[in-house]
Amino acid sequence: MTKLWRSFFAVTVTLLLVAVGSVPSSAVGRAGAYDGEWSVVIQTLRGDCIGNVRVAVRIAGSRVLSPDPAYNARGAVASNGAIRVVVSRGDQSASGSGRLTRDAGRGWWRTARGECSGQWAAERRGGW
Fold it and tell me: In the beta sheet, which residues pair with residue 99?
């Protein structure tokens, strides 16, 4: 079971990792200043979900996109860099929030049931 949680949260947190407070719906669907490829380091501070993991995510049209179709990711980035993401697979889910700047970002994540939580840091790898 621990192995399943670790692999789910490695991908989940990857997607979650780019998220923050209220993202207005007007910010979704148009090209954004944060669009492009991002490298995200996810760190677990509480629980036994994952250790330090580095993952790649893509932001397009101010939406956070899932690199793996096996997971459902919903999220958006506001024009001020605030980002919020929810990632789910079956009955498991996690959410993340934080803030992006032009080339970097950071924030927090936690599982829906609260068994794991931690922080994330992102770095832009390329733009569109």
Answer: 82, 106
